[in-house]
């Protein structure tokens, strides 16, 4: 009877160990699935970051082009103002000559 009790105890311990192993395997599989999900998220975020970096570079170039165009327009405006002032003086001179 003592052997039967000992055998039952050992079988119970074995069953408990198997159950713990099964639980650990299930937990391992769950963690592996989470890791795969995280790896997928990391890849997606990396791709998005790369796209955003490219977009920022493009926008920076466009901004540079717009600043250059604005500077060109400001310079042209300055030339037009100077020409308008010259024409106003010329007109005043011609009117003065005509009136005299």
Structure summarized in a few sentences:
The protein has one helix at residues 2-99. The protein contains 1 helix and no strands.
Structural class estimated from helices and strands? mainly alpha
Number of helices: 1
The major beta sheet can be summarized as:
none
Quick check: average pLDDT? 97
Q: Kindly state the number of beta strands.
A: 0
Account of the protein in words:
- The protein is an all-alpha fold.
- 98% of the residues lie in helices and 0% in strands.
- It contains 1 helix and no strands.
- The longest helix is centred in the middle third of the chain and has 98 residues.
- The N and C termini lie far apart (145 Å).
- The mean pLDDT is 97.
- Keywords: Coiled coil.
Q: What secondary-structure arrangement, pairings included, does this model have?
A:
Layout lengths: L1 H98 L1
Characteristic terms for this protein:
single chain; 100 residues; mainly alpha; 0% strand
